[in-house]
Design brief:
Pdz3 Domain; 437 residues; 14 helices; Glutaredoxin; 4-stranded mixed sheet
Length: 437
């Protein structure tokens, strides 16, 4: 089975089950968590996944596995909260076999189908697995506002409680609702260093030789390089990853994780009859334990127009609806994503675009370090203010400029910068080089 196939191995639509079947699953009795036993006293963060799986099978505990890129500041405060546990998380963490992975080269794709279940632009991500290695769900998320607008300690605690209830339900195996068993016989790449694009990625980045680990966003770059080499990647289609609930018209309470607080008028959710107060329960034939699981269903959903089926609670009732999605429904702000501003999409301008003096139009001051970039040979100076690129002047700078530029340019393109210097304006034209050139 290929890596891409693993990512979509689960059925695509919640309509594959009848509403009666969903009601039986969602209304199954939940017994209170038993008292913690003597072997549950300490939270130990393991680093050996194989040993952790063996332990989970012996103890019949689910696994909670976290990915953490240590050099990245993003989500560092939340990572600290999880590691320290505190009064909210520790009693829940004790009921899991906890694992911590801090190098993306150690991510085993057979257990962690990252293309379908992980936002690789995140520097912290959580996975919930059965003792056999089936994926129950995931936890994490960010948006253009901050790294705390989609996750919190309370959100994680609520997700963990739901996972524990599901794991302990005696009818779980009969439902066949969890992810597939890991295909340990797969000949597909097992980790990032086995990807056919790994050597290309590394050769184009001599500075990567000094890295002590591979970052998650770099794994995403390698996967995209693979697809580019196969001719299957379209940057106007395939960059819109991990859509938000708002993309289908739903605003979800961050801490609860599944409760709808707002439905946008005229949106797919509104047209499907959903209302504030509804609680998401299942979608894409997956149980939902928190907001990240719903975003995962959207991520694996149609890339153009299409449908996604949703099951939700309204009071004591359970309802089913179909979200009819128009072309372009996935689009979100991408500027915060490293894979967009500094990844393999298109090509960068050859300098870093600092914000210039104006705010209502393009106003960019080019910056570089000790070594002048090749664009300096064409006449660009640090004292210049760039006011247009190829006659276009959107009011962007920083990562927003880089993302916009990469969308519109590829290696070998000729680019014309309109610059101001000493009150005068002139153009500078140069040819874009690829990363390894």
């Amino acid at each position: 089975m290929s890596l891409a196939a693993i990512a979509v191995a689960a059925p695509a639509r919640a309509a594959d089950r009848t509403l009666a079947e969903w009601r039986a699953i969602l209304d199954a009795p939940v017994t209170p968590l038993p008292p913690l036993g003597p072997n549950d006293a300490a939270v130990v963060w393991r680093t050996d996944l194989t040993a952790a799986l063996d332990e989970a099978q012996r103890t019949n505990k689910p696994l909670f596995v976290t990915f953490r890129c240590l050099p990245c500041k993003q989500c560092s405060a939340f990572d600290k909260d999880v590691l320290e546990g505190g009064t909210t998380l520790t009693p829940l963490l004790q009921r899991f076999v906890t694992v911590r992975i801090t190098d993306a080269s150690q991510i085993d794709f057979r257990y962690f189908p990252v293309e379908g279940f992980a936002d690789l632009d995140m520097s912290w991500w959580g996975w919930f697995l059965s003792p056999e290695g089936r994926v129950y769900g995931v936890f994490g998320g960010k948006d253009e506002v901050s790294d705390a607008t989609r996750i919190s300690v309370d959100a994680l605690a609520n997700t963990m409680r739901r996972v524990l209830d599901h794991h302990r339900n005696p009818a779980r195996a009969a439902w066949s609702i969890d992810g597939p068993l890991p295909d340990l016989a797969s000949t597909a790449p097992h980790n990032a260093t086995e990807l056919p694009s790994y050597n290309q990625w590394k050769a184009d980045r001599p500075w990567a030789q000094n890295q002590t680990c591979i970052h998650c966003h770099q794994v995403q770059d390698m996967l995209r390089l693979r697809d580019m080499s196969l001719g299957t990647f379209d940057k106007n289609r395939d960059v819109w990853v991990w859509p938000l609930p708002e993309n289908v018209g739903l605003t979800v309470d961050r801490d609860h994780g599944l409760r709808v607080t707002k439905v946008t008028p005229g949106s797919p959710a509104a047209k499907a009859g959903m209302q504030p107060g509804d609680e998401l329960a299942a979608a894409g034939d997956r149980l939902l334990f928190g907001q990240a699981d719903f975003r995962g269903v959207l991520h694996r959903g149609p890339k153009a127009a299409g449908d996604i089926d949703v099951v939700y609670r309204r009071g004591d009732d359970i309802k089913q609806a179909t979200l009819h999605l128009a072309d372009g429904w996935r689009k979100t702000v991408l500027d915060w994503r490293m894979t967009m501003s500094q990844g393999v999409i298109g090509v960068g301008p050859g300098f870093f675009p600092l914000k210039g003096p104006d705010s209502d139009t393009m106003s960019v001051k080019p910056f570089w370090g000790k070594n002048a970039p090749y664009v300096a040979d064409a006449g660009l100076k640090k004292s210049h203010v760039i006011t247009a690129v190829d006659g276009q002047s959107p009011p962007v700078s920083g990562r927003a400029f880089l993302t916009w530029f990469r969308f519109h340019h590829n290696p070998g393109d000729k680019v014309t910068l309109t610059v101001k210097e000493g009150g005068k304006t002139h153009d500078i034209t140069y040819t874009l080089k690829g990363l390894g050139e």
